[in-house]
Specification:
The chain is an alpha+beta fold. It has helices at residues 14-22, 31-40, 83-100, 116-125, 175-182, 214-227, 242-250; strands at residues 5-8, 44-49, 52-62, 66-74, 106-112, 128-139, 148-149, 185-190, 193-198, 203-206, 232-238, 264-270.
Length: 271
């Protein structure tokens, strides 16, 4: 089997990287969109075989000394050859070196529950599950709830657990993590219910008041989606938010797989 070499990705690799992204998650993948920025900050790594980039991973700094791992991909035509394991091992070893240098305290990443290959590999490396969320969507939304922007403060995040859902990234729920999230999310309120919505995404997550009044949160999330031109509402909830989860199912929200509690896992590796 041809050898896989690992290096920092370059702009010249974008054609190969785009090809990887377009055959990942049935083409509904973020790698192609995000890769140029990741290349510019030198956080994206490329796995090359015979001069062709066939896989990627990214390691980036997050608040609280977290080194976030994402973008682990292998082109469809190169799967089942061991390249995924080699890329995961390279990401793990690179991350350990960064932690050993004192530039980070731990590695974290999130993934979908049916990403069994990545889960098996990272568990064998010593990663452990530290948080669980559920991603749900509803098509054909129609909401007239009144929403307004607001500037949240730390107490508005008190209902969240250790992590803040922010797209497929989960910064720590701490002052630095809140600041990081607010650079990428808009905060809304409807009555006494508050929520975040990721910019350039249709994902909303509840803040203060939503567990007590789930319908107002869901109405607000749907209004925010409609105002952004989306035809569906997407919400990310912690597994402990059973009032909101149950009400969302009642209102026609669904998950990609038949689950009732969680479908996203957050993993951590620390020494």
């Amino acid at each position: 089997m041809p050898e896989l070499s690992i290096r920092i990705a370059l702009m010249d690799d974008m054609e190969d990287i785009a090809a990887i992204s377009r055959v990942t998650w049935d083409g509904d993948d973020y790698l192609e969109k995000e890769a140029p920025g990741w290349i510019r900050d030198c956080s994206l790594y490329a796995g090359e075989v015979d001069g062709k980039v066939v896989g990627t991973f990214r390691l980036s700094q997050m608040p609280e000394g977290v080194l976030w791992m994402e973008g682990l991909r292998v082109h469809l035509e190169y799967r089942s050859r061991g390249y995924g394991r080699r890329l995961a091992d390279a990401a793990y070893k690179t991350g350990k070196k960064i932690i050993g240098s004192g530039k980070a305290r731990c590695m974290e990443f999130s993934t979908y529950i049916n990403n069994e290959g990545s889960i098996h590999i990272t568990m064998s490396q010593g990663f452990r599950v530290v948080n669980r969320f559920i991603l749900m969507t509803r098509e054909g939304i129609d909401s007239s709830a009144e929403i307004e922007r607001f500037e949240p403060i730390q107490k508005d995040f008190a209902a969240l657990t250790e992590h803040i859902p922010c797209g497929w990234k989960y910064p720590r729920n701490c002052p630095g993590g809140i600041e990081w999230a607010l650079q990428r999310c808009d905060a809304f309120r409807t009555g006494d219910v508050y929520f975040l919505r990721k910019r350039d995404s249709n994902e909303a997550t509840p803040l203060r008041g939503a567990e007590e009044d789930p319908d107002s949160f869901l109405d607000g999330a749907e209004t925010a989606a409609m105002k952004a031109g989306d035809s569906r509402s997407c919400i990310v909830l912690h597994e402990s938010g059973q009032n909101i989860i149950e009400r969302a199912f009642d209102r026609g929200y669904d998950s990609w797989e038949p689950v009732t509690d969680y479908n996203i896992l957050v993993f951590r590796y620390d020494t």
